[in-house]
Amino acid sequence: MKQLLITAAIGxxxxxxxxxxxxxxxxIWFEPVHxxxxxxxxxxxxxxxxxxxxxFDFKVFTGGALVPPxxxxxxxxxxxxxxxxxAGTYTPGELPITNILSYxxxxxxxxxxxxxxxxxxxFFNEAMQEEWANNGVIFAGANAGPxxxxxxxxxxxxxxxxxxxxxxxPGGVWATFAEALGATSVSVPSSEIYTNMExxxxxxxxxxxxxxxxxxxxxxxxxxxxxxMGVYSxxxxxxxxxxxxSGLTAEERGQLLQSNMEAFVTTQIAYANAVEEVSLIxxxxxxxxxxPDQSLLNVREGFIANDYGGLRQIAKERFGVENMDPLIExxxxxxxKWENLLxxxxxxxxxxxxxxxxxxxxxxxxxATYGVN
Length: 373
Hints:
The protein contains 16 helices and 11 strands. By secondary structure, it is an alpha/beta fold. It has a single domain (about 25-365), classed as Bacterial extracellular solute-binding protein, family 7 (D-Maltodextrin-Binding Protein, domain 2, 3-Layer(aba) Sandwich), CATH 3.40.190. The chain has a 6-stranded mixed beta sheet, with helices on both faces. A 5-stranded mixed beta sheet has the order 2-1-3-10-4, with helices on both faces. Helix 2 links the parallel strand 1 and strand 2. Helix 4 packs antiparallel against helix 14. The chain is globular and about 60 Å long. It starts with a helix and ends in a 13-residue tail after the last helix. Residues about 1-20 have low confidence and may be disordered. Its main location: periplasm. This is TRAP-type C4-dicarboxylate transport system, substrate-binding protein. It comes from Roseovarius litoreus. InterPro entries: DctP_fam, TRAP_DctP_sf. Keywords: Periplasm, Signal.
């Protein structure tokens, strides 16, 4: 990474642009125990505080205590917080490209590759950078959750078996895919999935495997149908308030970017390890992980080939984006690149993982000029 980018702010004098005594605010609306909250914010803030000798002292607000989910990007823009997490699906009108690309992520079967794809594009694609700027935030890192699968009461492995079933999907592209399956997509708050599954009001729910533990779904589902349905990767893990960002020195901005990169890697490792651990425990509890029949795989493949259920029309009519082809092609090309690159490293080796991410993404960012008008 360029020396400018990685130089730590340790030892900077009090004449630096950011007052060391200032208590900075960071916001993520997940609960403190959530993997993203813990690794991308709580642990990130602790490590940053130590590495900067207290110059970066972020108070982390979780669970929507300071800013609610739908207003999280606005909270960064307006300076309520200095840095925050935002799920782009809350603001489709403000983040059309981000939301459109979340449809393309349905085809991803490798969560880390998808996370790195959207991170790289968000930093370097001009249209995406313009989108962040129009919303008054400085993008500084993305992420992606694990792959989403169907979790069901019954063993529904064929297309015919799943037709007309009531399925709770996370919304967006997943709801559209439920229609392609011939199922009924049901809107249910995440806090009510367990109860609805327990009462038999839902046949299945679409979630990543960590929810088997975090939402206790392993007590109400009997089967995980391993039909990959992509990842959630819309929005940003970190975006900074422009006034805060421009008030920093290049060295300070470089240290924040370095810290974000390290936290990105630890978050991805934590997600992968959690999926493995939860899957093992779920099997011990009697949950069966079963392969989908070819008929279900055919529906998935046809859905992707058929423009993700009409993505280009959705882009034009709902988001006002006339030509998505270059963005879709860039996403697919970048994703394929990351799939290949990740095969060459041990993903549990944080140092090797960080070296790769630094080389391919963060070494290309000039902290002296990035995000500074």
